[in-house]
Write a structure and sequence with these properties.
The complex is a heterodimer of chains A (337) and B (285). Chain A contains 14 helices and no strands. With 337 residues, chain A is an all-alpha fold. Chain A has one domain: Orthogonal Bundle (MetI-like fold). Chain A is globular, with a radius of gyration of 24 Å. By secondary structure, chain B is an alpha/beta fold. Chain B has a domain at 3-88 and 174-278: Rossmann fold, CATH 3.40.50. In chain B, the strands form two sheets. Chain B has a six-stranded mixed β-sheet, with helices on both faces. In chain B, strands 1, 2, 4, 5 and 6 form a five-stranded antiparallel β-sheet that branches. Classes of the chains: A mainly alpha (337), B alpha/beta (285). Chain A binds chain B through residues 235-237, 239-248, 254-255, 258-259, 261-262, 332-335, and chain B through 52, 54, 78, 82-87, 90-91, 93, 95, 98-105, 112-113, 116-117, 152, 154-155, 165, 168-169, 172.
């Protein structure tokens, strides 16, 4: 426990520095890109003097360091600027779109953990068996088939042909905006509201994109779990555990898995971060109104405030999850305490 | 007889065909102390581990008889073996640094062994098991058993770790202790302490002991009988106090290589391997 407190104290120093660096990079990318923010707002038919005035109003005539300083100052006040596209503050947009991504990524992550970890463990325990080979082929396809192919195939089969799954989006039209927004997670909100039809509809819409996202993560998690387990099972302490006459289940889960849990935490944290950020393609195919889609649309419309804001959020997610993994790591492994 | 081994053979598949690591070993053991000596790769560890059926997964094993206290080990199921492992026979490995689970405290690893084999113990509470572990640590003469029980293996010295290992293997009160080079990874001064501890515990509990080592004087000091292994065979078996009068060329060669403080030699002898060593004593005339 003391170790995690110390890790937290260290994070108080390192996290702001990391975020400042991230802000600088995103800011510079935004300024270096051959996109004129003024043009993006006013269009190319606006009169010269209006363009010039707007440029001064936006502070774009100032030197870059001063612009960056102003950007950071705004950031400190929780102001990411306004989105040109939605005309709302970017923070509001993100608060609206991010929960959809969290819902999708978390569901995918849960599925991936529940399937991927046992799959990897059993494949390692029965190394070279038929199960092991099946898992390896499954992992290989999961990792090598591009996610958009998988997503579209899934839509074709389960929605278009079999009709088992509902179409794209988060909810059917009749259920849209039916439950009051509390958490922004449609499944949770409908549960809170006690609207079970809405809940079933939300869950049905969630299943397909989450399943597609999960397959990719299952493959990664199972592959890493298998490799870690093979390593752990060859340890001397496994011979000790067997010599003690312990059951196979106890040897596998308490002794071998207990030793890989530490390394697995890092894999899981990075997978989750990747899901939160990398759902861009899946969100696009399934018209899932999440952060990934918001980012894509903003980018295509040269809506730089929105792009920078969303990028910062993704960066923040990475930093926070890494920090979390580090803290759990310290709790699980007595050697790094 | 606690252990009966007749014509044991252990083979491993290699790209060049099967390689035979243990070639027709026969040994038997009652409630006595048997030493097995031999160089690395002579098959002494494999022979001892075969009694517990704890061989690498690709090992192929056959024997005319391989029995532990009447139980045919070769025919025994995994469940039968689990009733023997730990409960009837314990195994102490060479280096506690690797042989103890790094993410479990010493106390919980001992408590686990204590719980594993007695239904009454398995029902016991967490606190009772922890107390039993501390008690066992005291039995292996650890001065501060409460602290050590809560320590992780990386926080223990080699000698301490080996005491934890011994306490763990004694927890279910087995009839046989197999010690696979229990002191090779320890400092010389600690080696003697650990061996004395093993010797005392084995004698006071009336257990059988198989001590695997490549240290001839040490084995002859601790054990009643010594089996000398070379290239997968037992080449000579003799009472420990007769070791000086060993007849086999390999044993003699080993003894001559030992430096002596009383009769120092200018140049230490080295082993000059002789193909005839592959024949056990009594095989020729």
């Amino acid at each position: 426990m003391r170790a995690s407190v110390r890790a937290l104290a260290g994070a108080v120093v390192t996290v702001p520095i990391t975020l400042l660096g991230l802000a600088l990079v995103t800011f510079l990318i935004g300024r270096v890109m051959p996109i004129d923010p003024v043009l993006a707002i006013l269009g190319d038919r606006a009169p010269e003097e209006v363009i010039a005035r707007t440029r001064i109003e936006m502070g774009l005539d100032r030197p870059l360091p001063i612009q960056f300083f102003r950007y950071i100052t705004q950031l400190m006040h929780g102001d990411l600027g306004n989105s040109v596209m939605t005309s709302h503050p970017v923070t509001e947009d993100i608060a609206h779109f991010f929960p959809a991504t969290i819902e999708l990524a978390t569901t995918a992550m849960l599925i991936a953990m529940l399937i991927g970890i046992p799959l990897g463990v059993f494949a390692a325990v029965r190394q070279g068996s038929r199960l092991d080979n099946v898992v390896r082929v499954f992992c290989l396809t999961g990792q090598s088939v591009p996610v958009f192919v998988l997503a579209m195939l899934s839509l074709l089969v389960f929605y278009a042909r079999l009709g088992w799954a509902p179409g794209t989006g988060r909810a059917d039209v009749v259920f849209q905006d039916m439950v009051p927004e509390n958490t922004g997670l449609l499944t949770v909100d409908s549960m809170i509201a006690g609207d079970w039809d809405s809940f079933r509809d939300a869950l049905a819409h969630l299943a397909q994109p989450a399943g597609v996202l999960a397959w990719f993560s299952i493959a990664y998690i199972a592959r890493m779990t298998r490799a870690f387990m093979l390593d752990a099972l060859s340890g001397e302490y496994i011979i000790t555990a067997r010599a003690k006459g312990l059951s196979a289940a106890r040897i596998i889960w308490r002794h071998a898995f207990g030793n890989i849990a530490v390394r697995l935490v890092t894999v899981l944290a990075l997978t989750y971060a990747g899901l939160l950020e990398g759902a861009v393609i899946t969100e696009t195919v399934f018209s899932w109104p999440g952060l990934g889609q918001y980012l894509t649309v903003s980018l295509l419309n040269a809506d730089m405030n929105a792009v920078l804001g969303a990028t910062l959020v993704v960066g923040l997610v990475y930093v926070v999850l890494n920090l979390l993994a580090d803290m759990i790591y310290r709790m699980l492994d007595p050697r790094v305490r | 007889m606690l252990v009966e081994i007749k014509n044991l053979s252990i083979r491993f598949p290699t790209p060049q065909g099967e390689s035979e690591a243990v070639r027709g070993v026969s040994l038997s053991l009652g409630q006595e102390k048997l030493g097995i000596v031999g160089e690395s790769g002579s098959g002494k560890s494999l022979t001892a581990r075969s009694i517990l059926k704890l061989l690498p997964g690709n090992a192929r094993i056959s024997a005319d008889r391989l029995a532990f206290d009447g139980t045919d080990v070769l025919a025994a199921s995994e469940a039968d073996m689990r009733a023997i492992r730990g409960r009837r026979a314990g195994l102490i490995l060479q280096d506690p640094k690797y042989a103890l689970n790094p993410v479990m405290t010493a106390g919980s690893q001992i408590a686990e062994a204590w719980r594993a084999h007695r239904p009454a113990n398995a029902r016991a509470g967490r606190k009772e098991a922890a107390e039993a572990a501390v008690d066992l640590l005291a039995q292996v003469q650890i001065r501060d058993p409460d602290r050590v029980a809560g320590a992780y293996p990386h926080e223990l010295s080699g000698g301490m770790g080996q005491r934890v290992m011994i306490a763990m293997m004694l927890a279910p009160s087995p009839d046989l202790l197999i010690a696979d080079e229990p002191t090779s990874a320890l400092d010389a001064t600690v080696q003697a302490e650990i061996l004395r501890l093993v010797e005392d515990l084995v004698s006071s509990r009336g257990m059988g002991l198989i001590l695997i080592s490549h240290d001839l004087p040490l084995v002859s000091h601790v054990c009643d009988r010594v089996a000398v292994m070379y290239a997968g065979q037992v080449v000579e078996e003799l009472p420990a106090h007769d070791l000086r009068h060993a007849r086999h060329g390999y044993t003699r060669g080993l003894l001559e290589c030992l430096p002596s403080l009383i009769h120092p030699q200018k140049r230490l002898q080295v082993l000059n391997r002789d193909p005839a060593w592959l024949d056990p004593i009594g095989a020729r005339g």
